[in-house]
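User: Here's a protein and a ligand (zinc ion). What would the complex look like?
Assistant: Let me lay out the input and then the predicted complex.
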Amino acid sequence: MKTMMFMGLVLGAFVIASCASSGNPLVQPDIEGVFAYRVGQIEVFMLVEAERDGNTGILIGADQELLSRYIPTDGFKHTANAFLVKTNGQNILIDAGTGAGGIIVDKIKRLGVEPEQVNAVLITHLHGDHFGGLQRDGAAIFPNAKIYLAASELEFFTQTNVNQGAVAALAAYENNVVTFTPDEPGTSLTEIFTGIYPIAAFGHTPGHTLYLIQNQNDRLLIIGDLLHVALVQFAHPEISATFDVDPVEAAVIRRQILEYAAQNKIPLGGMHIVYPGIGTVETEGEGLKFTPVK
Ligand SMILES: [Zn+2]
C-alpha cells in the first residue's frame, strides 16, 4: 500500500458555472449503453454494464402510497454503470462493474482503450457491482492500472467485515493498490489525477467515495451509490436502501450532497441512474428533482 501526497484545493474557491446539458455534449459514439460527456477538456464516458427490472423492496420505510407517486405502474429499470474518464493523456475508470460478460471491457475497447491502457481504477466502494470487474481467476483485468480507494473502505471490507471477493480483487493488483483519505464535502479538496477530486460520502459503506471531475468552469460529480432508486430517492433523500451499511448516516450525506449539487449547479453521474446516467439536480419542495441530460 502507498499513501498519497497531495496539493489542496478549496472547493469554495471554484468558479461556479452552469455547465449542465447545454454546453457539454460530445459527439455520441455509436455504442449502445455509452454516453459521452465533456467536462472542460476532460472526456467522460458513462458505461452501462447491465440493465434489469428495478425493485423498490430495497427502500427502507417507503410505503405503497409514497411509492405509487413515483413508480410507474408498469415498473422501472435499474442499471449498473461505470465511468471512463480521459484526462491529461490518462485513461481512468471509476468503478469496474461486476465484470459479467466482459461488458465494460468491451465498451472501453470500442472507445479505443485497451485494458492494458487503463492507468487507474478509482473505486467508489467495495461492493461486488463496483469491484467485480477488476480481476478474473486471480489475474488483473487492467494489468497496468493502480487501484485507488479510501483507506477506511479497504479496512472495513478486508479486516472488519471481510468480503473475500474484494480481497481477491485487490490481491490481483498487489502493490498497485493506493489508499487515501477523501476530503469532507465543502472542505479543501485534494486532486488525485488532473481534474479529479475524491469526496467522502460515508454511510452507504464506511469508505464510500464520490469523485468530483472539474476542468475549466465545468464540473461533474460521480456519486457512486449515494442512491439506488433515483425515481424515489431524489425526491426523498431521507429514504435509504437495505444496501446502506449505515442507513441513517447514508441519508444525512445523501441530502447534504444533493443539496450542495443543486445549490452549485453541479451535474451528477450515478452508478445506478439509468442511461444517460448523468443529469442536473434542483431543489423541489422538501427534496430534489433530477433531470437527465440530453
Ligand atoms: Zn452498487
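Summary: The two ends are 41 Å apart (CA to CA).
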